[in-house]
């Protein structure tokens, strides 16, 4: 007999090894029984208060009421299972002014920015992520992160298209070898949702078939890794590697796993957040064959932690993949201690360890997103000591010119009094440490 807690846990984590609940369904929020099944007949699209559970076929997905309402309104012909197919989400990503203006009351500035756009970093929003946008408020954090404004076309002093100098540290196309023991492997230039502040905006395209990134490039990169025994850590990024089909991804992982000196593989992705439907049981089954495999997930704001996203992260965590988050500090989006506290608390509840908080790179047209560094320090000071240590990310600047990530900390060392080290704690009180030993 399964306890309500265990079944609610299943609905949250949905580990595919566990039997799906067959007798009762519980609202994972209240843990109260909502429905008792009396027959074994299949049913689908069952309303469970705020949450819908789709049954009757594998895989099962949580479909929040908000997404369901959005789907009915803008995609009335679409079924729930189509909506929950990540390929459908990519095929129906919103890219043009006409479609977006039917969903959002665009400001004149947003309208002009979309109309003027050409080149890399196209407008691209999955229907799922579009369902989270506020139709009437252009200042809503999630909306600002994906809907362009004309500020994108202004280049300010100090900005450049490739501030990290990635192009100069590429031994072969798509591979950035900055640190001796690890490489950044850019396997695609495609993202399902394009973030307006993207560090790699110079290369992010709109072609799903990943033009310019083909197996020939991959083979060159794999060859380089094979021939460079100092590389013990490969970070697969892009673009978003989880927009690749399972087979291509598995080919890559398989090739990398066969290299003896590659001790760990990491995947950097935003898919669990903008395309949670991508995290299928088949994907997690495949990924867990390639352990030790870690994942860094790009999160921006606590409002992204929907039931769908929690389910996607739960599946990855259940597959034994340690999850870390990466967040870019953005003006008016997540630059408040209160917002960041909600984000990091939501992340640890979702079993994602806050890993990096990035100072926004001086990418061309990013002035409207950048905060002063003092803001980041203030946020770290507002977290450290005030909350769980695991919930505090490392605040870093990726040094322009290719110096790598440099950590920044608020000042906790107040100096010396004789041989006593003076330290400030999280409350601002001073403590002494006798810093002398023979
Ligand atoms: C961020 C990054 C890495 C990984 O850095 P960690 O601090 O180990 O997470 C590796 N290579 C490049 C080029 C990077 O930008
Ligand atoms: S997910 Fe990453 S690579 Fe893709 S647009 Fe956003 S920041 Fe750029």
Largest sheet: 9 strands, mixed
Taken from the alpha-carbon principal axes, the silhouette is: globular
Overall CATH class of the largest domain? Alpha Beta
CATH superfamily of the largest domain: Aldolase class I
CATH topology of the largest domain: TIM Barrel
Structural class: alpha/beta
- Tell me what portion of residues adopts beta-strand conformation: 15-25%
Helical amount: 25-40%
What small molecules accompany the polymer chains?
Answer: pyridoxal-5'-phosphate, iron/sulfur cluster
Give the domain tally.
Answer: 3
Count the E strands.
17
Average pLDDT, rounded to a whole number, is 88
Q: Low-confidence parts lasting 5 or more residues at pLDDT below 50?
A: 1-5, 7-52
Q: How many alpha or pi helices?
A: 15
How are the strands of the largest sheet arranged? 6-7-8-9-10-11-12-13-14
Please report the distance between the alpha carbons of the first and last residues. 63 Å
GO molecular function, one term: L-lysine 2,3-aminomutase activity
InterPro entries: Aldolase_TIM, LAM_C_dom, Lys_aminomutase/Glu_NH3_mut, Lysine_aminomutase, rSAM, rSAM_sf
Keywords: 4Fe-4S, Iron, Iron-sulfur, Isomerase, Metal-binding, Pyridoxal phosphate, S-adenosyl-L-methionine
EC number: 5.4.3.2
